[in-house]
Amino acid sequence: MRTAKTTSILAVVLAAVSTPLTGQLMDSRHQIELRLGVWNQISNVRTEIGSGGLATTVGSSGFLGGLAYGHWLSEAVAVRVSVGGLLAQVDTEIDGSGVSSEAASVGQILVGARYYFPRSTYGTSVRPFLGAGVGTVIGSQVASRVGTVLSTETRTEPALGGELSAGIDFLLSRHFLTSIGLGYLLMTAFDQPIGGSDNYSGPQLSLGFGYVF
User: Fold this and answer.
1) Which domains are seen in the chain, by residue range?
2) Nearest to 102 by CA among 87, 82, 122, 120
3) d(CA 212, CA 198)
4) What is the pTM of this model?
5) Is 16 helix (H, G, I), strand (E, B) or coil?
6) CA dihedral of residues 43, 205, 109, 107 (deg, nearest 10)
7) What is the CA radius of gyration of the chain?
8) Which of helix, strand or coil describes residue 83?
9) Which of 31, 109, 129, 156 might form a disulfide with 70, Cβ 3.0–4.6 angstroms?
């Protein structure tokens, strides 16, 4: 409910500041976009002091970041390639024999398309869309130990993923736009957990800043 309310408020604000452009056609144009937002993760910071030493765990804050490239095949359809991810978890433990740390991240590479509607919005500065994409979700975990001997272990887990989304593009000028989108990431589970979880499916809210050429 809170995510939907936030999305509605941002959409109203962006519509208010968008320049009322006319004749702004997108057919055959390209876009590079920076995406920032939040995933479905909950922040978790834990510190424990015991007989063995100090242990600190920092879970994901849910921050989402990434880049996307888009190309309009027509006024109604744009194809997209997006790359993004988040820091899933960081663990640090200090004891008498040394320091051990573990960091995990989850990324996604998706190829998809957006469909813009209704037709009456073509050539205007506010353009709603529906989107879908498929690709790969990659989990990466690095563990290191510093003591009498330095050791490092890296593990990568791939999984199939897909995304359904809906949002609005706001054309600020001929070369700049911003967008707001609400999506849902679907993925198969990792064979082994990454950052304390084997599946990161869930909703995500993103804000995009794009350059159009």
Assistant:
1) 2-212 (2.40.160.20)
2) 87
3) 37
4) 0.78
5) helix
6) -10
7) 21
8) strand
9) 31
